[in-house]
Design brief:
2 domains; Rossmann fold; 398 residues; alpha/beta; five-stranded parallel beta sheet
Length: 398
Protein backbone atom coordinates (compact mmCIF):
# COMPACT_ATOMS: atom_id res chain seq x y z
CA UNK A 1 0.00 0.00 0.00
CA UNK A 2 1.25 3.45 -0.89
CA UNK A 3 0.35 5.92 1.83
CA UNK A 4 -0.72 9.39 0.75
CA UNK A 5 -0.80 11.43 3.90
CA UNK A 6 0.20 14.76 5.33
CA UNK A 7 2.33 13.97 8.39
CA UNK A 8 3.62 16.40 11.01
CA UNK A 9 6.07 15.16 13.64
CA UNK A 10 7.04 17.13 16.75
CA UNK A 11 10.02 15.60 18.53
CA UNK A 12 11.48 16.24 21.98
CA UNK A 13 14.87 14.56 21.55
CA UNK A 14 17.56 14.91 18.87
CA UNK A 15 17.82 11.14 18.32
CA UNK A 16 14.08 10.91 17.67
CA UNK A 17 14.24 13.82 15.24
CA UNK A 18 17.12 12.15 13.39
CA UNK A 19 15.15 8.89 13.14
CA UNK A 20 11.95 10.56 11.87
CA UNK A 21 13.90 12.66 9.38
CA UNK A 22 14.48 9.41 7.47
CA UNK A 23 10.74 8.89 6.87
CA UNK A 24 10.97 10.71 3.56
CA UNK A 25 13.40 8.07 2.26
CA UNK A 26 10.79 5.30 2.40
CA UNK A 27 9.22 4.38 -0.93
CA UNK A 28 5.82 3.84 0.68
CA UNK A 29 5.76 7.45 1.84
CA UNK A 30 7.07 8.93 -1.40
CA UNK A 31 3.76 10.70 -2.06
CA UNK A 32 3.36 11.92 1.51
CA UNK A 33 4.19 15.32 2.89
CA UNK A 34 6.36 14.76 5.95
CA UNK A 35 7.46 17.61 8.21
CA UNK A 36 9.60 17.09 11.31
CA UNK A 37 9.93 19.85 13.91
CA UNK A 38 11.45 20.00 17.40
CA UNK A 39 9.51 21.02 20.49
CA UNK A 40 7.21 18.11 21.39
CA UNK A 41 3.68 18.81 22.61
CA UNK A 42 4.30 22.49 23.26
CA UNK A 43 5.37 23.08 19.66
CA UNK A 44 2.44 21.07 18.28
CA UNK A 45 -0.15 22.97 20.32
CA UNK A 46 1.37 26.33 19.37
CA UNK A 47 1.63 25.37 15.68
CA UNK A 48 -1.99 24.28 15.34
CA UNK A 49 -3.30 27.31 17.16
CA UNK A 50 -3.57 29.11 13.81
CA UNK A 51 -2.77 26.34 11.30
CA UNK A 52 -5.07 23.50 10.14
CA UNK A 53 -3.78 20.13 11.42
CA UNK A 54 -2.34 17.44 9.16
CA UNK A 55 -3.95 14.03 8.72
CA UNK A 56 -1.37 12.41 11.01
CA UNK A 57 0.32 14.11 13.96
CA UNK A 58 3.26 12.39 15.66
CA UNK A 59 4.18 13.91 19.02
CA UNK A 60 6.97 12.93 21.36
CA UNK A 61 6.18 13.25 25.04
CA UNK A 62 8.53 15.71 26.73
CA UNK A 63 6.93 15.83 30.19
CA UNK A 64 5.53 12.46 31.41
CA UNK A 65 3.85 14.04 34.43
CA UNK A 66 1.65 16.21 32.21
CA UNK A 67 1.10 13.81 29.28
CA UNK A 68 -2.70 13.66 29.62
CA UNK A 69 -3.00 17.41 30.10
CA UNK A 70 -0.93 17.95 26.95
CA UNK A 71 -3.13 15.52 25.00
CA UNK A 72 -6.24 17.39 26.12
CA UNK A 73 -4.79 20.70 24.94
CA UNK A 74 -3.72 19.14 21.65
CA UNK A 75 -7.23 17.76 21.09
CA UNK A 76 -8.61 21.30 21.35
CA UNK A 77 -6.64 22.44 18.27
CA UNK A 78 -6.98 19.25 16.17
CA UNK A 79 -9.84 18.06 14.00
CA UNK A 80 -11.83 14.96 15.02
CA UNK A 81 -10.39 13.03 12.07
CA UNK A 82 -6.74 13.73 12.92
CA UNK A 83 -4.80 10.57 13.79
CA UNK A 84 -2.38 11.11 16.67
CA UNK A 85 0.66 8.94 17.38
CA UNK A 86 2.50 9.46 20.68
CA UNK A 87 6.13 8.57 21.37
CA UNK A 88 7.02 8.26 25.05
CA UNK A 89 9.50 6.88 27.57
CA UNK A 90 7.25 4.40 29.41
CA UNK A 91 6.73 0.88 28.07
CA UNK A 92 3.56 0.04 29.95
CA UNK A 93 0.45 -1.76 28.70
CA UNK A 94 -1.75 0.12 31.17
CA UNK A 95 -0.62 3.49 29.81
CA UNK A 96 -1.14 2.23 26.26
CA UNK A 97 -4.74 1.23 26.99
CA UNK A 98 -5.51 4.57 28.62
CA UNK A 99 -4.15 6.46 25.63
CA UNK A 100 -6.06 4.34 23.12
CA UNK A 101 -9.24 4.84 25.16
CA UNK A 102 -8.70 8.60 24.85
CA UNK A 103 -8.55 8.30 21.05
CA UNK A 104 -4.79 8.17 20.47
CA UNK A 105 -4.10 6.17 17.32
CA UNK A 106 -0.89 4.54 18.54
CA UNK A 107 1.68 4.77 21.33
CA UNK A 108 5.34 3.84 20.79
CA UNK A 109 8.00 3.70 23.50
CA UNK A 110 11.40 5.20 22.84
CA UNK A 111 13.66 4.64 20.98
CA UNK A 112 11.86 4.55 17.62
CA UNK A 113 13.06 4.08 14.05
CA UNK A 114 11.71 5.24 10.71
CA UNK A 115 10.89 1.62 9.79
CA UNK A 116 8.86 1.28 12.98
CA UNK A 117 6.88 4.44 12.22
CA UNK A 118 6.13 3.25 8.67
CA UNK A 119 4.99 -0.13 9.95
CA UNK A 120 2.72 1.59 12.48
CA UNK A 121 1.23 3.85 9.80
CA UNK A 122 0.61 0.82 7.62
CA UNK A 123 -1.34 -0.78 10.46
CA UNK A 124 -3.32 2.38 11.20
CA UNK A 125 -4.51 2.71 7.60
CA UNK A 126 -4.60 -0.90 6.41
CA UNK A 127 -8.41 -0.86 6.41
CA UNK A 128 -9.70 0.85 3.26
CA UNK A 129 -12.48 2.47 5.32
CA UNK A 130 -9.91 3.89 7.72
CA UNK A 131 -7.76 5.35 4.95
CA UNK A 132 -7.99 9.15 4.82
CA UNK A 133 -10.00 10.65 1.99
CA UNK A 134 -8.82 13.64 0.04
CA UNK A 135 -10.89 16.82 0.10
CA UNK A 136 -13.08 17.29 -2.99
CA UNK A 137 -13.54 20.75 -4.53
CA UNK A 138 -16.16 20.97 -7.29
CA UNK A 139 -16.11 23.90 -9.74
CA UNK A 140 -19.33 24.59 -11.64
CA UNK A 141 -20.31 27.53 -13.82
CA UNK A 142 -23.75 29.03 -13.33
CA UNK A 143 -23.73 29.60 -17.10
CA UNK A 144 -21.59 28.31 -19.92
CA UNK A 145 -18.52 30.30 -20.97
CA UNK A 146 -17.89 32.06 -17.67
CA UNK A 147 -14.33 30.68 -17.39
CA UNK A 148 -14.91 27.86 -14.92
CA UNK A 149 -12.40 25.44 -16.45
CA UNK A 150 -9.59 28.00 -16.52
CA UNK A 151 -10.08 28.77 -12.84
CA UNK A 152 -10.43 25.10 -11.88
CA UNK A 153 -7.26 24.14 -13.75
CA UNK A 154 -5.21 26.97 -12.30
CA UNK A 155 -6.54 26.32 -8.79
CA UNK A 156 -5.47 22.66 -9.04
CA UNK A 157 -1.98 23.70 -10.12
CA UNK A 158 -1.77 26.32 -7.36
CA UNK A 159 -2.85 23.79 -4.72
CA UNK A 160 -0.17 21.34 -5.83
CA UNK A 161 2.47 24.07 -5.62
CA UNK A 162 1.34 25.47 -2.28
CA UNK A 163 0.57 22.24 -0.42
CA UNK A 164 3.35 20.10 -1.93
CA UNK A 165 1.15 17.02 -1.69
CA UNK A 166 -0.76 14.94 -4.26
CA UNK A 167 -3.54 16.78 -6.09
CA UNK A 168 -5.76 15.19 -8.74
CA UNK A 169 -7.64 17.28 -11.32
CA UNK A 170 -10.53 15.53 -13.11
CA UNK A 171 -12.01 17.08 -16.24
CA UNK A 172 -15.56 15.72 -16.38
CA UNK A 173 -16.59 17.70 -19.47
CA UNK A 174 -16.41 14.75 -21.86
CA UNK A 175 -17.65 16.66 -24.90
CA UNK A 176 -15.83 20.00 -24.66
CA UNK A 177 -13.16 19.62 -21.97
CA UNK A 178 -10.02 21.70 -22.46
CA UNK A 179 -7.57 20.01 -20.09
CA UNK A 180 -5.38 18.37 -22.77
CA UNK A 181 -4.76 21.72 -24.42
CA UNK A 182 -4.56 23.74 -21.22
CA UNK A 183 -1.92 21.48 -19.67
CA UNK A 184 -0.28 20.65 -23.02
CA UNK A 185 -0.66 16.91 -22.44
CA UNK A 186 -0.86 13.73 -24.48
CA UNK A 187 -3.00 11.08 -22.81
CA UNK A 188 -3.57 7.53 -23.98
CA UNK A 189 -6.56 7.16 -21.70
CA UNK A 190 -9.06 9.86 -20.80
CA UNK A 191 -11.90 10.29 -18.34
CA UNK A 192 -14.23 8.73 -20.91
CA UNK A 193 -12.16 5.53 -20.82
CA UNK A 194 -12.29 5.49 -17.03
CA UNK A 195 -16.08 5.80 -17.07
CA UNK A 196 -16.72 3.30 -19.88
CA UNK A 197 -16.49 0.26 -17.56
CA UNK A 198 -16.61 1.71 -14.05
CA UNK A 199 -17.06 -1.72 -12.47
CA UNK A 200 -13.49 -2.57 -13.57
CA UNK A 201 -12.04 0.66 -12.20
CA UNK A 202 -9.78 0.34 -9.17
CA UNK A 203 -6.85 2.28 -7.70
CA UNK A 204 -4.27 0.51 -9.87
CA UNK A 205 -6.17 1.17 -13.10
CA UNK A 206 -6.87 4.79 -12.16
CA UNK A 207 -3.15 5.28 -11.47
CA UNK A 208 -2.49 4.22 -15.07
CA UNK A 209 -5.08 6.66 -16.43
CA UNK A 210 -3.71 9.66 -14.53
CA UNK A 211 -1.09 11.76 -16.31
CA UNK A 212 1.65 13.32 -14.17
CA UNK A 213 1.95 17.03 -14.83
CA UNK A 214 4.61 17.60 -12.17
CA UNK A 215 5.73 16.09 -8.88
CA UNK A 216 2.41 16.75 -7.16
CA UNK A 217 -0.29 17.35 -9.79
CA UNK A 218 -1.89 14.56 -11.83
CA UNK A 219 -4.55 14.97 -14.48
CA UNK A 220 -7.44 12.82 -15.63
CA UNK A 221 -8.08 14.66 -18.86
CA UNK A 222 -10.99 14.88 -21.25
CA UNK A 223 -10.50 14.38 -24.97
CA UNK A 224 -13.02 17.15 -25.62
CA UNK A 225 -14.63 15.24 -28.45
CA UNK A 226 -18.32 16.05 -28.92
CA UNK A 227 -18.66 13.04 -31.26
CA UNK A 228 -18.12 10.66 -28.36
CA UNK A 229 -21.11 8.59 -27.29
CA UNK A 230 -19.80 8.04 -23.77
CA UNK A 231 -22.44 8.80 -21.17
CA UNK A 232 -21.30 8.97 -17.53
CA UNK A 233 -23.42 7.07 -15.04
CA UNK A 234 -24.16 8.05 -11.49
CA UNK A 235 -22.43 4.97 -10.07
CA UNK A 236 -19.44 5.41 -12.38
CA UNK A 237 -18.79 9.03 -11.39
CA UNK A 238 -19.24 8.21 -7.71
CA UNK A 239 -16.71 5.38 -7.93
CA UNK A 240 -14.24 7.53 -9.86
CA UNK A 241 -14.38 10.32 -7.27
CA UNK A 242 -14.10 7.86 -4.38
CA UNK A 243 -10.97 6.25 -5.85
CA UNK A 244 -9.42 9.64 -6.59
CA UNK A 245 -9.96 10.66 -2.95
CA UNK A 246 -7.84 7.69 -1.89
CA UNK A 247 -5.01 8.74 -4.19
CA UNK A 248 -4.68 12.42 -3.34
CA UNK A 249 -5.01 14.94 -0.55
CA UNK A 250 -7.17 17.21 -2.75
CA UNK A 251 -9.37 16.32 -5.73
CA UNK A 252 -10.46 19.15 -8.04
CA UNK A 253 -13.57 18.42 -10.13
CA UNK A 254 -14.22 20.46 -13.27
CA UNK A 255 -17.93 19.90 -13.89
CA UNK A 256 -19.64 20.72 -17.20
CA UNK A 257 -22.60 23.08 -17.28
CA UNK A 258 -25.15 20.28 -17.06
CA UNK A 259 -27.93 19.63 -14.59
CA UNK A 260 -28.33 15.86 -14.43
CA UNK A 261 -28.19 13.06 -11.88
CA UNK A 262 -24.40 12.69 -11.75
CA UNK A 263 -23.58 16.42 -11.67
CA UNK A 264 -26.15 16.91 -8.89
CA UNK A 265 -24.59 14.03 -6.96
CA UNK A 266 -21.07 15.43 -7.42
CA UNK A 267 -22.23 18.83 -6.16
CA UNK A 268 -24.00 17.21 -3.22
CA UNK A 269 -21.02 15.14 -2.08
CA UNK A 270 -18.19 17.64 -2.68
CA UNK A 271 -16.57 19.10 0.42
CA UNK A 272 -16.49 22.52 -1.24
CA UNK A 273 -18.52 23.86 -4.18
CA UNK A 274 -17.37 26.88 -6.16
CA UNK A 275 -19.95 28.55 -8.40
CA UNK A 276 -18.44 30.74 -11.11
CA UNK A 277 -20.33 33.69 -12.58
CA UNK A 278 -19.67 36.74 -14.69
CA UNK A 279 -20.81 40.14 -13.33
CA UNK A 280 -23.97 40.42 -15.44
CA UNK A 281 -27.71 40.21 -14.92
CA UNK A 282 -28.01 36.70 -16.38
CA UNK A 283 -25.44 35.24 -13.98
CA UNK A 284 -27.13 37.08 -11.12
CA UNK A 285 -30.36 35.20 -11.81
CA UNK A 286 -28.68 31.86 -12.47
CA UNK A 287 -26.31 32.26 -9.54
CA UNK A 288 -29.24 32.72 -7.17
CA UNK A 289 -30.98 29.66 -8.63
CA UNK A 290 -27.82 27.54 -8.51
CA UNK A 291 -27.05 28.53 -4.92
CA UNK A 292 -30.55 27.62 -3.78
CA UNK A 293 -30.44 24.33 -5.70
CA UNK A 294 -27.04 23.38 -4.26
CA UNK A 295 -28.21 24.31 -0.79
CA UNK A 296 -31.17 21.95 -1.13
CA UNK A 297 -28.91 19.17 -2.42
CA UNK A 298 -26.21 19.53 0.23
CA UNK A 299 -28.32 20.16 3.31
CA UNK A 300 -27.83 22.67 6.09
CA UNK A 301 -24.81 20.90 7.61
CA UNK A 302 -22.64 21.29 4.50
CA UNK A 303 -20.72 24.49 3.74
CA UNK A 304 -22.56 26.92 1.47
CA UNK A 305 -21.33 27.14 -2.12
CA UNK A 306 -18.77 29.89 -2.69
CA UNK A 307 -19.62 32.34 -5.45
CA UNK A 308 -16.74 33.64 -7.57
CA UNK A 309 -17.04 36.54 -10.00
CA UNK A 310 -14.82 36.06 -13.02
CA UNK A 311 -13.88 38.46 -15.84
CA UNK A 312 -14.68 41.55 -13.80
CA UNK A 313 -13.91 44.97 -15.32
CA UNK A 314 -14.47 43.68 -18.86
CA UNK A 315 -17.35 46.16 -19.18
CA UNK A 316 -17.06 48.54 -16.25
CA UNK A 317 -20.00 50.74 -17.18
CA UNK A 318 -22.55 47.95 -17.31
CA UNK A 319 -21.17 45.25 -15.02
CA UNK A 320 -22.75 44.37 -11.71
CA UNK A 321 -20.71 44.51 -8.51
CA UNK A 322 -20.32 42.16 -5.58
CA UNK A 323 -22.60 44.51 -3.66
CA UNK A 324 -25.29 44.09 -6.34
CA UNK A 325 -25.13 40.31 -5.98
CA UNK A 326 -25.36 40.61 -2.22
CA UNK A 327 -28.31 43.00 -2.19
CA UNK A 328 -30.34 41.55 -5.06
CA UNK A 329 -29.85 37.83 -4.49
CA UNK A 330 -28.31 37.55 -1.01
CA UNK A 331 -25.16 36.05 -2.57
CA UNK A 332 -21.89 36.80 -0.81
CA UNK A 333 -19.02 36.91 -3.30
CA UNK A 334 -16.05 34.91 -2.03
CA UNK A 335 -13.57 36.18 -4.64
CA UNK A 336 -13.35 38.30 -7.78
CA UNK A 337 -10.90 37.84 -10.61
CA UNK A 338 -10.40 40.62 -13.17
CA UNK A 339 -10.64 40.26 -16.92
CA UNK A 340 -7.12 39.82 -18.30
CA UNK A 341 -7.33 38.23 -21.77
CA UNK A 342 -3.64 38.85 -22.49
CA UNK A 343 -2.46 36.95 -19.41
CA UNK A 344 -4.85 34.02 -19.91
CA UNK A 345 -4.34 33.98 -23.67
CA UNK A 346 -0.55 33.84 -23.53
CA UNK A 347 -0.63 31.09 -20.90
CA UNK A 348 -3.16 29.08 -22.91
CA UNK A 349 -1.24 29.40 -26.17
CA UNK A 350 1.91 28.14 -24.45
CA UNK A 351 0.13 25.30 -22.66
CA UNK A 352 0.98 26.79 -19.25
CA UNK A 353 -0.78 27.64 -16.04
CA UNK A 354 -0.86 31.27 -14.88
CA UNK A 355 1.69 30.58 -12.17
CA UNK A 356 4.14 29.29 -14.78
CA UNK A 357 3.58 32.16 -17.19
CA UNK A 358 3.43 34.99 -14.62
CA UNK A 359 4.37 33.77 -11.16
CA UNK A 360 4.24 37.14 -9.40
CA UNK A 361 1.17 38.55 -11.18
CA UNK A 362 -1.44 39.79 -8.68
CA UNK A 363 -4.17 37.68 -10.32
CA UNK A 364 -1.99 34.57 -10.00
CA UNK A 365 -1.33 35.29 -6.34
CA UNK A 366 -5.01 35.98 -5.62
CA UNK A 367 -6.11 32.73 -7.25
CA UNK A 368 -3.46 30.79 -5.31
CA UNK A 369 -4.64 32.26 -2.00
CA UNK A 370 -8.27 31.47 -2.78
CA UNK A 371 -7.42 27.88 -3.80
CA UNK A 372 -5.49 27.33 -0.58
CA UNK A 373 -8.41 28.63 1.47
CA UNK A 374 -10.69 26.11 -0.26
CA UNK A 375 -8.42 23.22 0.75
CA UNK A 376 -8.36 24.38 4.37
CA UNK A 377 -4.70 23.41 4.67
CA UNK A 378 -1.64 25.44 5.41
CA UNK A 379 0.88 25.85 2.56
CA UNK A 380 3.93 23.63 2.86
CA UNK A 381 7.04 25.31 4.21
CA UNK A 382 9.59 26.12 1.54
CA UNK A 383 12.56 23.79 1.58
CA UNK A 384 15.90 25.46 2.30
CA UNK A 385 18.27 25.72 -0.63
CA UNK A 386 20.72 22.85 -0.81
CA UNK A 387 24.29 23.68 0.04
CA UNK A 388 26.84 23.23 -2.77
CA UNK A 389 28.82 21.09 -0.36
CA UNK A 390 25.88 18.83 0.52
CA UNK A 391 26.95 16.10 -1.88
CA UNK A 392 30.54 16.15 -0.63
CA UNK A 393 29.43 16.02 3.01
CA UNK A 394 27.10 13.13 2.32
CA UNK A 395 29.94 11.23 0.60
CA UNK A 396 32.27 11.90 3.56
CA UNK A 397 29.67 10.60 6.03
CA UNK A 398 29.39 7.39 4.07
Amino acid sequence: MILRLSIDAFTARPETQAALARLGDHRELSRCRVTVRPGGFHAAISHYGDTPPSQVVIVEEDDPDHLFDSLERLAEVCDPGTRVMVIGATNDIGLYRKLVALGVGEYLPRPVSADQIVETLRGMFSDAKAAPRGKTIAWWGVRGGVGTSSLAQNSAWALAQHLREPVVYIDLDLAFGTSLLAFNLEAKQTVADALTNPERLDEVLLERYLVEYDDHLRILASAGDCRSDAQPTLDGVERLIDLAQRLAGVVVLDLPHLWCDWTRQALAQADEVVLVANPDIFCLRDGKTATEACGALRGISAPRPRLVLNKTDAARRTQLTAKDFQEAADLAVAASFPYDPLLFGEAANNGQMLGEAAKSHKLTLALGQFATSLAGKAPAAAKPAASPLAGVLQWLRK
